[in-house]
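Quick one: Glycine--tRNA ligase beta subunit from Acidithiobacillus concretivorus, structure tokens please.
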Amino acid sequence: MSAHENPLQEDCLLEIGCEELPAREQLPIRNAAIEQMTRLLNDAGLSFGQITAYVTPRRLALWIQNLALHSQPRESIRRGPPVERARDAAGNITPAAEGFARSCGVAFADLSTLDTEKGPVLAWREVEAARSSHSLLPDIASQTIAALPLRKRMHWGTRQDSFIRPVRWLLLRQGQQMLDWQAFGLQAGGQSFGHRVHHPEAIQIDQPANYAAALLEAQVMADFDARRTHISHKISVIAEDLRATPILPSALLDEITGLNEWPVILIGSFAEDYLRIPEEALITVMMQHQRYVPLRDANGRLISQYLFAANIHSQDARIVIHGNNRVLRARLADAAFFWDQDRQKSLTARLPELQNVLFQEGLGSIYDKTLRLQKVARSLSSLCNVKADDLERAAALCKSDLLSGVVGEFPELQGIMGGHYARHDGENAEVVAAISQHYLPNGRDDDTPQSPAGQCLAIADKLDTLCGFFAIGKTPTGDRDPFALRRAALGVLRIILDAELDLPLDKAVTLTLEALGHDIVKDPTAIGTGVLDFFQDRMRVYFKEEGFRADQINAVLSRQPHQVLDARKRLEALARFLTEHQAAEALAALIKRVNNLLRKENLEAQREPDPQLFEDPAEHQLWTHWQVMAGSVHTHIHNAQYANALDLLAGLRPSVDTFFDNVMVLAENPEIRQNRLALLTRLQDAFLGVADFTQIQGS
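--- reply ---
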């Protein structure tokens, strides 16, 4: 039902107009605004329909449909002392009861009783009167804005309140009525403003439902998603006309959307001579520095044309295009100059100069880190199935591009440019690949290295950083992680899992600490334990994000804390077992029972069950059943075929049930008791070969 069809509901519109919002902040702000407004309206007892949020560079707005004109009356109950303490032995009202009535603002006779788990108590039921939404909304609007997750707030003028950018106008109305909202030294009105250039005049918003349409007439596309779709479509159409394919990742599209209220897509170009620059440099200049969209031809090669969005519909688009071409040309000219200059000096020749570049106080220079990397890389080479000489050569040269002109101008190209320089210097393909990939992954969305040498060198580099900073006491605390050590640890885990490397973290950490040396690592045991515990925390987070339950993760990591790939295999098998086998949880409960028995009793070391001591057919049945499958179970576990092992073990359920139904494990005869415990130990060991089932919680 629309607002005008129900006299008890009206649409509401809130808008805050400001200077240009950062493009990357707009979606988080928009989503948070809906969440906060929803929470505050619910808390106020105001019913409402759909909430639509709009965000552009100059505004954040919320359209709340079918908002109730009054809050729901709500009953609150205050509890007082027990009824038995309301009067004394003489029947007089006690001070406690009088005090409670006084605190409620009523007489004792007005109180009622309330039955509770601890018996009846005095109570005061109060119904909060309905309140007008017109009176509630200004404060709700202020609270919504104050609760937005802004990375940085700024002050302007002499005011104490803050926002991400200076606020220029406010709008708050419900139906036809403008509400009295004051914030940031401004009084809310019933007007918005259109495009800064095309329609700078005020726009009267007569109805909240007309907001987006009114702005569209003023050449502002208020809806972020609609604006994003429009931009994507226009880019696709123009690129198709050029017989080209745009390079348009979603992050770039979001940023372009956040920079423009009235996007007009235009074609720019640059001199073809600049195509001799490595394409990563060209793409970085266009995408990250200029927010342009590079284009590839049918063969996948970059072309000398690009697309960009202008936040204006110019009468002469050639002027806008010329201005953007000129800016890009200057950036590309710098890149070309540095590219030509850098190749005149080899990576090997730059290596000694790294002694003058500090890596971290307490860990020496970049040159010192390079020497450590060579040792760690050679030590890890056999574990990663990489030629040691290639890996050591790549480790020696991988940081030299930090001294190049291109990386100095575009730091995000470190490693990538090193690969190009190594290729120019005549290094072999494995060395080139390792150098170019060894920083990967830099972030959560980055790919992991694809070459074996790149994988191994990336792990070595991140391990040196992790172990080094732990050794000098620079560990993350709380939310603070200034040296991005969590990201480094996560990078190591992702590489191991993506490349399916059987790399034991404990051994890798030990080798890295040895390379750091005793001058840096004063207590190798303590530092190693700290690093491995840190990795375990990251593994828990990573596996949980993959969808595994916390209890399953704990059950596996307690048995396999250092082999990441093996831990993932166990988790997959365990999750499948607990999901697909109907008897899985019951069997897990039985294994817990076995573990509890064995924990309480002292079993003679390595005792084997003796069938001659079995007294009950259930013992023979369980032993025979186990003997039939034991070899296969152990083989599956040895080959990391954990799902197959658990499938077999699930078949033990009937025999285990019968055993516990008919056999007293803790028999009075010590020989019989020890023999039965030895039988149960065989089962416990088999299940522990996959996970610690005592940590599995019921569904």
